[in-house]
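Work Package 4 report. The design task specified in the project plan requires that, given a folded chain encoded as structure tokens, an amino acid be chosen for each position. We show below one input record used in the internal validation round.
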């Protein structure tokens, strides 16, 4: 009897671009939000990695808490308390980006 197991990860790793990360960090600080950076990368993969391989990007989380089931878990229930800080963060981020110089190394090729 023989068996073989192959693990296939369909998503590339997500690498946060330093410029994008700095913009998010500054927008969060300007919004009065606490910024926590993980000591280690997320252990799960994310399709966002495809975007981050083509364009400067930063994957962020709003932080639902350690007692909350993970995002794709069947028991996950989005905490409505995250809506206001999320909106504030994205308003500040959009305002910063409309004023900012373009991110370096933005590819100009058409999407595949």
């Amino acid at each position: 009897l023989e068996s073989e197991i192959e693990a296939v990860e369909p998503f590339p790793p997500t690498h946060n671009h330093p410029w994008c990360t700095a913009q998010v960090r500054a927008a969060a600080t300007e919004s009065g939000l606490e910024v926590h950076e993980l000591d280690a990368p997320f252990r799960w993969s994310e399709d966002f990695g495809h975007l981050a391989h083509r364009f400067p990007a930063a994957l962020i989380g709003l932080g639902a808490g350690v007692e909350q089931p993970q995002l794709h878990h069947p028991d996950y229930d989005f905490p409505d308390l995250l809506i206001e800080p999320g909106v504030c963060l994205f308003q500040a981020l959009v305002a910063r980006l409309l004023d900012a110089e373009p991110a370096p190394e933005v590819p100009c090729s058409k999407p595949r």
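The chain has a mean pLDDT of 84. Validation will be extended to a larger panel in the next phase.
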